[in-house]
Amino acid sequence: MKLTVVGCTGSMSGPDSTASCHLVQAEGTGTDGERRVYSVLLDLGPGAFGAVMNHVDPRDVDAVILSHLHADHMSDMISYHVFRRWFPTGALGPVDVYAPAGAVDRVRGVGGDPVTEDFSQDFRFHTLTPGYTTSVGPLSIEVHPVLHPVEAYAIRVTGPSALGDGQVTVTYSGDSDACDGLVDAARDADIFLCEAGFVEGRDTVRGIHLTGERAGEMATAAGSRHLILTHIQPWTDPFEVAAAAASTFTGGIELARAGAVWEL
Fold this sequence. Notes:
Strand 12, helix 7 and strand 13 form a beta-alpha-beta unit. The strands form two sheets. Strands 6-5-4-3-2-1-14 form a seven-stranded mixed sheet. A seven-stranded mixed sheet has the order 7-8-9-10-11-12-13. The protein has seven helices and 14 strands. It has one domain (2-263): Metallo-beta-lactamase, Chain A. Helices cover 20% and strands 30% of the residues. By secondary structure, the chain is α/β, with parallel strands linked by helices.
């Protein structure tokens, strides 16, 4: 399995990265018996669709999973809609989109489209609920509800190791403060891609984002093997966040950056 950071800046696009979007890929056997690479996008925030093109042909994306419906995690669904609907050689047809309830209305609102637009030419919407599971080729996906002001899910993806030695797991937190659902989602994960949008002492409101300390606590409680910190706003020193996480998690810690790749 391969994880690529398409965009990782928190709450907005930034000077070095688009907003939230991550690409998970794995090789598997298609219905035609041929081996191919399956590609899943986790979130599609502002500016991310253009950056996706640096890593995969958008025509080859098999599914999009939206952790929640805040604009910084989903607004480039409109760009993807335009790409699929008006591709020069003809409409590309629908791709699977997994999202919390209300996704069609939310995408319609971002695009300023009329109520008659349901995007069915471009997307097959599936509604996420607590414990929802599905598969995309060799990738098994399950979601866990997390703590955020809107309905939100952490996404756990399990698939074949690129080294050929069994299964590996990547968990993406989406946006969340500390909660049991996040621990459950990250349980024994090989990579825990975890947001840390707040800083202790500066951001005191709870129920929205993690700090570096709380991200480390979640990784420790879950027994995650490797912590990658993401969703850090442009005004925050990411190395301060990493140092804070190291105070509560003794495993490997890295900072997400646009274009970074991990092969598990």
